[in-house]
Amino acid sequence: MYRITCLVFLTLSLIACSSDDVDVSKTHQKPNLIIMYVDDLGYGDVGSYGAVGVETPNIDRLAKNGVRFTDAHSSAATCTPSRYSLLTGEHGFRNKAAILPGDAPLLISPDQSTLPKMLKRAGYTTAVVGKWHLGLGVDDVDWNKDIKPGPLEIGFDYSFLLPATGDRVPTVYVENHRVVGLDPKDLIQVSYQEKIGNRATGYENPEQLRVTADAQHSKTIVNGVSRIGYMAGGESALWVDEEFPDIFTEKAISFLRRNKDKPFFLFHSFHDIHVPRLPNPRFIGKSTMGPRGDAIVQMDWMVGEIIKELEQLGIAENTIIIFTSDNGPILDDGYTDNAEEMVGAHKPAGVFRGAKYSAFEAGTRVPTILTWPSMVKPVESDALVSQMDIYASMAKLVGVDLKEGEAMDSFDILDTLIGQSKKGREYLLKESIGGLSVRQKNWKYIAPIKSTAELPSWIYGKKVEIGISDMPQLYDLSVDISEQQNIADKNPQLVKTLQAKIEEIVSEGYK
User: Fold this and answer.
1) Of 69, 289, 298, 486, which alpha carbon lies 20 to 30 A from 17's?
2) How do strand 32-38 and strand 264-269 relate by DSSP bridges?
3) Strand partners, 440
4) Tens-digit pLDDT profile for residues 143-178
5) 182: left (phi over 0), alpha (psi -120 to 50) or beta
6) Contacts of 459 (CB under 8 A, 6+ apart)
7) What DSSP string runs through 231-248?
8) Coil, strand, or helix at residue 300?
9) Least confident of 10-14, 409-413, 429-433, 503-507
10) Distances in Å between the alpha carbon of 244 and those of 174, 276, 279, 484?
11) Contact, 134 vs 108, CB < 8 A?
């Protein structure tokens, strides 16, 4: 009874204070943190942000009960640099982060500061479940032995991963340091240079495909789907795409149950709605948009299962959930699954121009919601925020002093994240394929490149506006939210100032 009374008094006291007065590090109630990191989910892809043809009741419930951000961004318009930035608090270009092949070495150094390491300093138990795509091991990975360094070496206590993406080999799960279910008599081989083994490929055996693919995705066939790269062996360890939602949800829930009595951080990194989109049969036909819409329904179900488990464990009130996406939406990204033909009136990016890969707003402006039932009241916020800011803000919340140079691009915006302020960043630098752009409040400047020939050749097969050109672009989002009127030539001094700001941030960081 004494403990319950104390906790009630403490909670009421915290609610009565501003976040500047809250020092959670001195309480017995450090909040749990779950980051739900969805893949390729656009600003308009969920109900609370205007979706049509698909229902997302669990995500909408989060939006109704928490802080719903309308100007929140991933650091980049592609997944690897965005994930790098989220976990390190620094821009991906500082470590030459780019879209990695499936056999790439670990991108984050074990010596580097990370979000999970920081939280462990505050007494947290940490885990990552789902898509990784930040590399594993060093040099040539031997998938048949301990695979390290990996998540455990950069601050996670537990990991259960897709090593890269659903459309890349190896098509196996890795739990902690080992491939799950591997038969030592059937060793795995992976190559991104030449064909190995006897498995069929998409370009040699198209009759075996359940969904057709472009040339990039037409290598080794697994589960009726051709992938990027070649793989031999490991038959007993191969995943089945349709099982992703159940397996990842079970692993996440098991972690919650094991750690319900102590503070934890779960980086729940969804595969959905990345290609190949192969939702579980029970979600097929649940939207009007075919596999892409059904994958959104599946993803929403996964969100709901986590919320339900938190409530059943009695820890929902003191758990922060941050729901967001690694970059903007894309319909056709290598597989023919009728996403373009069936989109209907739905607008994956909402009113914003561009898509995944793009320098326009849709490349990085993504749905972002924060809930913390015991502390956060429902509110809508138009503050300019970045996923990188989670790092410094959580450090403030849990009472960890950041080291010199740690999370150098992350800002403490705790008041904003928990809805007690609407003050956001003044500047936010963003990466896209081939270029950089910067937001200064409602000004949006896209830096020119010398030649579009600098762009990677594969990007020309994507049906998206890349937004990069050899001319400077300037937009006033306060009157032109869809970036239709380039006013750079009318504002030469502002163009010069913002170009200098990009160069300053790249070379010296934010000031």
Assistant:
1) 69
2) parallel
3) 427, 443
4) 999 999 999 999 999 999 999 999 999 999 999 999
5) beta
6) 357, 433, 434, 466
7) EES-GGGB--GGGHHHHH
8) helix
9) 10-14
10) 13, 12, 8, 39
11) yes
Q: Residue 89: is it exposed, middle or buried by C-beta count within 10 angstroms (0-12/13-18/19+)?
A: buried
Q: Where are the alpha helices (DSSP H) in 276-433?
A: 290-313, 389-398, 414-417
Contact between 168 and 227 (Cβ < 8 Å): yes
d(CA 73, CA 364): 5
Task: Give the C-alpha separation, 137 to 177, whole Å.
Answer: 10
Token couple for 342? 């069936």
pLDDT, residue 27, reads 45
Which SS3 state, helix, strand or coil, does residue 183 take? coil
Distances (CA, A) of 451 to 77, 251, 270, 434, 448: 20, 46, 36, 10, 9
pLDDT in tens, 41-99: 999 999 999 999 999 999 999 999 999 999 999 999 999 999 999 999 999 999 999 99
SS3 state at 318 = coil
* Each residue's pLDDT tens digit, 435-455: 999 999 999 999 999 887 778
Structure token pair of residue 444: 């949006």
Cα 492 → chain centroid: 35
Tell me the Cα Rg of the chain.
22
Rounded Cα–Cα distance for residues 306 and 241 (Å): 20
Task: Count the residues in the chain.
Answer: 511
Q: Any idea which residue has 């030449």 for tokens?
A: 194
Q: What domains are defined for the chain?
A: 31-188+233-426 (3.40.720.10), 428-508 (3.30.1120.10)
